Amino acid sequence: MSKIYFSCWAGRVIDHRRRPESEWAAPDDFKFPLGFARENDLRAFIGWDGFVLADPQISVVALCRAYLEAVQAEASCGECFPCRVGTYVAAQILGKCCDGVATPADLTQLHSLLLDIARSSKCQVGQTTPRPVLLALEHFGAGFDKCVESGVRLAPVPLITRVSAPCQEACPAHLNIPIYVEDIKKRRYLDSSDTAREGCVMPGVLGRVCVRPCEANCRRANVDEPIQIKYLKRFAADYETNRGQAPKRSASRASGKRVAVIGAGPAGLACAEKLALRGHHATIFEALPEPGGMAAVGIPDYRLPRAVLRREAALIEQLGVQIVYNKRLGEPGFTWADLRGMGFHAIFLGIGAHHSNRLGAEGEDNAYKGFVHGVHFLRAIALGHEVMLGRKIVVVGGGNVAIDCVRSALRLGFEDVNLVYRRTIKEMPADAVEIQDAVDEGVKFHYLCNPTRLIADADGNLTGVELLRMELGEPDASGRRRPAPVPGSEFTIATDVIIPAIGQQPAFDFIQPADGLEITRWSTMAADGYTGATKLAGVFAGGDCVTGAATLIEAVAAGNRAAIFIDRYLRGESLELDPAQHIERMLAKVGTYDKREKIELPRGLPRQGFHHLPVAYRINNFEEVEHVMTAEAATTEASRCLRCFRVAGVVR
Question: Mean pLDDT over residues 454-468, rounded?
Answer without folding.
Answer: 97
